[in-house]
Amino acid sequence: MNSPEEPTQSPQEQASLPASAAPGSGVRGSADGSDYGAEQIRALKGIEGIRTRPAMYIGDTGPRGLHHLVYEVVDNSIDEASNGFARQIVVRINADGSVSVADDGRGIPVGPMPDMENRSALEVVLTEIHAGAKFDRQGGYKTGTGGLHGVGITAVNALSEWLEAEIRREGAVWTMEFARGTVAEPLKKLGVSDRTGTKITFQPDPRIFPDTKFHYDTLQKRLQELAFLNKGVRIQLFDERTGAKDDFCYEDGLIEFVKHLNRTTTPLFPQVIHVQGTQDQTEVEVALQYSIDYDENVRTFANNIHNVEGGTHLSGFRTALTRCLNNYGKKQ
User: Domains of the chain, with CATH numbers?
Assistant: First the structure.
């Protein structure tokens, strides 16, 4: 018996329906005459998906998204440095407007991956999303990393007109070239090298970005910030277009960061309070100094990523600081 909520159609009624609206066809007719069915569904994979919806991966295709490409590559170098595998990072804005990021880390692996049709690990990392060594601690990254999802460097490749990778490892120099996310030149072994490291050079794609001009001051601010956060790591920035350059290296890390933030005001005391510790494999570091200003200047980071809206680490710090001051006041 058919319930009133589920009316059925007679064979004559079903036969009179257009084929596009036949039950089970997966297609529905619409008021304006257009059809919506299985043939309208698209399944975008990897590079194509990134190029179709770039803002999902880099925020937007304006200046912020453009510079985010550089940050993604630099963050990989920073991950090497924060885990003790690299000590120097060089960022260069080339005369043609492209950008090069080089480090003295271990170098992206270039060997074949049997479960990926024996493609080079370098190719897989640069062309497949969710490919990388940071999903667990087995890749040698014992401390937190900015890259966690295996997406960033693939997005850079996908949104670049061209990208060149130069890897130094296993006693040799390896190169590979890409065009809009796909392999343009296969992996090549050029010669010998007694050094290790990764160098990525890329040109943003004008089909994606209305303006592909990098701004020195924007990169300078972020790179200096990273140098403060990673004490002892040297980060150099060069602009071949203008000759501008900067060299950042801070042995006292966050202490120098706080002094830098307070450089235009008067501190209430000369020393910067610095606390550092580890619990359950989580490292925490805090530096603070009070000044005569009424407005606070608080910066919070997790794995070198700026947490603009704070987070539980900031909430916990505020709670602990308030408790300590209250307890001290009650004892006096």
Answer: 47-248 (3.30.565.10), 254-331 (3.30.230.10)
